[in-house]
Design a protein that fits this description.
The complex is a heterodimer.
Chain A: H1 2-15, H2 20-29, H3 34-43, E1 65-70, H4 85-92, E2 99-101, E3 107-109, E4 129-133, H5 148-159, H6 168-171, E5 174-180, E6 183-188, H7 209-212, E7 235-241, E8 245-250, E9 264-269, H8 273-282, E10 288-289, H9 296-303, E11 308-323, H10 349-356, H11 361-369, E12 373-374, H12 397-406, E13 410-411, E14 417-419, E15 422-423, E16 425-431, H13 434-449, E17 453-459, H14 461-464, E18 482-487, H15 494-499, H16 524-535, H17 539-555, E19 559-572, E20 575-576, E21 593-594
Parallel strand pairs in A: 1-9, 1-10, 16-17, 16-18
Antiparallel strand pairs in A: 2-3, 4-6, 5-6, 7-8, 8-9, 10-19, 11-18, 11-19, 12-19, 13-14, 14-15, 20-21
Chain B: H1 2-29, H2 36-39, H3 46-55, H4 62-74, H5 88-123, H6 128-142, H7 145-159, H8 175-213, H9 216-223, H10 228-266, H11 271-280, H12 284-312, H13 315-318
The chains are: A alpha+beta, B mainly alpha.
Chain lengths: ~600, ~325
């Protein structure tokens, strides 16, 4: 498709000949995420759709307490230090961004008076700046007014490397300037089609200048308000015990009408996912529990006659098996899996394709993920009805065997394939985690049938995902032939997600394995597509480039996608949470209410 | 007596130093990294991880880090948590009340069961009461707390719906209702932990009593015409308590450790669950502080035991 057809579709939406939902669906069908589709529309001059009003309460408060369980409790409440979603979720109860993503991938204004568009003059035609208007009359919890200065300060705070904010990549490359007391302009160095990053979503929370001004840079850790947040959010801070409990109470001056619904909020941490599910679904002690990483049949059993149920949100998280393009068993200059080597078995594209045929996604879904996963052939997964037209997956042992035969790997006397006296043996590593070990077993079984000897290895998560250079078992070192884990799509735009695999990002000893291209995939076509996408001012062409990148990863079998994972939570039957697969759980907390 | 206590105190200092050194080295050599959660997040550039590591001194050599830690510790600075960027002492003090309340109650419950049952069983060895007590004790300490904990939850929370199984630190009630709620939510964890402790302690009290009850001086006391109660309480128990004190004193720190499991199951925000979550997130300063507190507790309770021996049997402090 792309270019021309997309352009005409945008035109159709603009003239009202096609509704925007249909547009989003059609883009999803070619692998574009809903948020991206909506941004395309915005840049094409069509205003963002406002989310349909589903919020029912007609007055502020009166909803009683809201009790939620996070089995990993928040450990700090400064959104710019938040190391995990649990911390972002806790901070978001008190702090707010300009806008957040709803379930359809639309921007939902929170502190913004309106969502910028070309029509309202918010978006510059060259995609190099965006002007946000701030809602008037918003007050911090301590009564001080929210102004453009707070946004400028938040940018200065987060972009200062000495602050060591984890949101630095969001704020580091932009400039924020005050236009008036109630509007700011964000300037990008290069044309940036995905403009809704800074001040949007988890890392978008604005912090008060008057309380943090003295704690910018190296003194950031000493700020007393790191532990007692003063924000603009629906709930005011009451108490925080790291890892245990976060409590808030209704903010009577909240800037949205009839919100919040609940009089108090309590976020309790600790324990494990199964007992959290039990406390919500079976005993009803809590209203909501975060992240049910539990096998589906356990949840189904709990749900029988329970007081709650599981709820799902679709995002872009992908569980995959990555293939090592380099040789993990040869050491060059003290470095294994060196880019100077080639994998003795897996560098043959036909062998990689055969391997992909041996991953039975359907069985993995049936035995492990159930309602929480969707089978997919794509690394880049869209929302809702994502089916790429260009890619497909298949489980076929015979076909794989034939491909391996053709590639010269003949079955030996012991049932294991061999070529030139070399056995077809693979080391398959992943983190220690029930569902992953089960997936390993399913894949290993199919491989055995095809005459491949697979050795399984599992590494404790805290080591596997560590950035510790001294450790040989981390995923970026990749001292194995294939490895499995999940990469969450933290941002509803593919740029960061896909940029990882350019050849300049190959993880090597030289960059202390900080390069994020752990499969060591080198393809000039891919590099060129990414480079082109990053300098492409035309959002339509840019979109086509990212689809091409996804298809290249698929054609070259860099990843064998196993499961497109949904976000799973437990929720009481009466609670109506506003969840989105493109945002954190609490990103729309102001819209949560209880059905009477 | 005071000289005896002083001597014990002086031995404690080098042992604590040695313990801290071992702990530190083990933790420093252990794999893992407090910023692992950042590693898979494409939003966080590797430079930030590197900057954080440098900022928190993770790249310094071990001996330097140990000296820093020791120096800070001597000045009363416990360091700060990498994960919550909060002072470790604040973190521990926040967790202490829940631990003391639940574990203290469990320990008291254990003593209240173990001493009378053990003593009574020893006075009538191989009677029906003794047999039943022994059987229950064996069952009690063969069942691990994680099993009984989940069993209790399934029975009392899920099936009967009598008791909550998530422990809340701040109950929104005042006066007598607050007290009742506090008791209600502690029933299950205290019972799980207390019964487990009581089981092994009962066996111990019984055998200690049996050892003493057969000694000649007890027979003499009886021969003088003293009543059974006086003989047991004044003559037998005081002497039998010496090994029991040892057991209880040495068990105290172990109880804190054993409570880790119970704290996880019932979501009690105590020291044990702090230790677990810190280990999982590689928050070394917190792990170091908590394990060091455990080490101090071991040393402290040993000291208390020594002092109690001196009181129970004055001959010990003279040696």
């Amino acid at each position: 498709m792309l270019d021309k057809e997309l352009r005409s579709m945008i035109g159709q939406v603009k003239d009202g000949r096609m509704d925007r939902r249909a547009f989003v669906k059609r883009l999803a069908a070619v692998g574009l995420t809903a948020p991206l589709a909506n941004q395309l529309l915005a840049l094409g001059g069509v205003a963002m759709a406002q989310s349909p009003a589903v919020y029912k309460p007609t007055k502020r408060g009166g909803g009683g307490p809201l009790k939620v369980l996070w089995w990993q409790g928040p450990t700090l409440l400064n959104p710019h230090f938040a190391t995990g979603t649990k911390d972002q979720d806790g901070s978001r109860v008190f702090y707010e961004p300009l806008a957040s993503w709803d379930a359809d991938g639309n921007l939902n204004p929170i502190l913004a008076a309106e969502i910028p568009s070309v029509a309202n003059g918010g978006l510059a035609a060259d995609a190099k700046s965006v002007v946000w208007k701030i809602k008037p009359g918003v007050k911090w919890h301590d009564g001080k007014p929210l102004t453009a200065d707070d946004f400028v300060f938040t940018w200065q705070y987060a972009s200062d490397p000495a602050t060591a904010a984890v949101s630095i990549s969001t704020y580091g490359d932009i400039t924020v300037e005050k236009v008036s007391d109630l509007s700011i302009r964000i300037l990008f160095k290069t044309p940036t089609p995905f403009w809704a990053n800074a001040f949007v979503g988890a890392y978008g929370c604005v912090i008060p200048k008057h309380l943090f001004a003295d704690y910018k840079g190296s003194k950031s850790r000493e700020a007393p308000n790191n532990l007692s947040p003063v924000g603009t959010g629906p709930y005011k801070f009451v108490e925080f015990k790291p890892g245990d409990v976060v409590r808030g109470e209704l903010n009577p001056d909240y800037h949205m009408p009839n919100r919040p619904h609940f009089d108090t909020i309590e976020m309790k941490g600790g324990g494990d996912a199964v007992s959290a599910a039990r406390a919500v679904i079976q005993t009803g002690e809590f209203d909501f529990a975060w992240n049910m990483q539990v096998e589906d049949d356990v949840l189904l059993r709990l749900e029988k006659g329970g007081k709650g149920k599981t709820v799902y949100a679709t995002g872009g998280d992908i569980e995959f098996i990555a293939i090592n393009f380099t040789d993990p068993n040869v050491e060059i200059d003290g470095e294994r899996s060196s880019i100077k080597t080639k994998h003795p078995i897996l560098s043959d594209p036909n062998v990689r394709k055969a391997l992909a045929l041996l991953v039975d996604r359907e069985s993995v879904k049936k035995a492990i993920y159930g309602r929480a996963g969707r089978t997919t052939a794509n690394y880049l997964n869209g929302p809702e009805k994502f089916v790429s037209k260009n890619t497909s997956w298949e489980f076929n042992v015979e076909k794989a065997s034939k491909m391996l035969d053709d590639a010269g790997w003949k079955v030996g006397a012991d049932g294991i394939r061999e070529k030139d006296g070399k056995k077809f043996k693979l080391l398959y590593q992943t983190s220690t985690n029930g569902p992953r070990q089960k997936t390993q077993a399913i894949v290993k079984q199919a491989c055995q049938k095809a005459g491949i000897d697979v050795e399984l290895k599992s590494v404790v998560a805290s080591v596997f995902f560590s950035s510790d250079v001294a450790n040989p078992d981390t995923y970026p070192k990749f001292y194995a032939d294939i490895e499995e884990f999940q990469i969450p799509m933290t941002q509803p735009d593919p740029a960061l997600h896909m940029r990882r695999y350019i050849s300049a990002n190959v993880a090597t000893k030289e960059n202390k394995w900080q390069g994020q291209n752990f499969p060591r995939y080198v393809n000039k076509e891919y590099d060129d597509a990414i480079a082109a996408a990053e300098t492409e001012t035309d959002p339509v062409k840019r979109a086509a480039l990212y689809i091409k990148c996804n298809d290249l990863l698929w054609q070259d079998t860099v990843f064998i996608p196993v499961m497109h994972r949904l976000l799973v939570d437990a929720c009481s039957n009466t609670l109506r949470p506003a969840l989105s697969g493109w945002a954190n759980r609490t990103d729309n907390i102001q819209d949560w209410y209880r059905e009477a | 007596m005071s000289q005896y206590v002083l001597r014990r105190l002086l031995i404690a200092v080098p042992s604590l130093l040695a313990i801290s050194l071992v702990l530190f080295v083990v933790l420093a050599l252990a794999p893992g990294d407090p910023f692992s959660e950042l590693a898979t997040n494409p939003n966080v550039p590797p430079e930030v991880q590197a900057a954080l590591r440098a900022k928190f001194g993770l790249d310094d050599p071990i001996y330097l880090r140990y000296l820093h830690w020791l120096n800070a510790m001597l000045h009363g600075d416990w360091g700060f948590s990498f994960v919550s960027r909060m002072n470790v002492d604040t973190l521990i003090l926040q967790r202490l009340p829940a631990t003391l309340y639940v574990i203290g109650s469990a320990q008291i419950l254990a003593l209240l069961i173990a001493i009378p049952v053990g003593v009574y069983a020893a006075t009538r060895p191989y009677s029906l009461f003794d047999q039943i007590a022994n059987t229950l004790a064996f069952v009690g300490f063969s069942l691990p707390t994680f099993f009984t904990g989940i069993l209790f939850i399934l029975i009392f929370s899920v099936t009967l719906d009598w008791l909550p199984f998530v422990y809340t630190t701040d109950i929104k009630a005042t006066g007598i209702r607050w007290v009742l709620e506090m008791i209600r939510q502690a029933i299950m964890p205290v019972a799980v932990l207390g019964l487990f402790q009581a089981a092994s302690m009962t066996r111990f009290v019984r055998s200690a009593m049996l050892d003493v009850i057969r000694l000649d001086y007890v027979t003499t006391a009886r021969a003088k015409g003293l009543g059974q109660a006086t003989v047991i309480v004044k003559h037998v128990m005081r002497n039998a308590m010496i090994p029991v004190v040892t057991l209880i004193a040495l068990q105290m720190p172990a109880v804190f450790g054993g409570a880790i499991v119970t704290e996880q199951i019932f979501r009690i925000p105590g020291i044990g669950s702090l230790l677990i979550s810190s280990i999982l997130s590689n928050d070394t300063p917190v792990v170091m502080a908590v394990t060091f507190v455990f080490a101090c507790l071991v040393v402290l309770f040993n000291l208390i035991a020594d002092v109690l021996y001196g009181w129970l049997d004055p001959r010990i402090s003279l040696r």
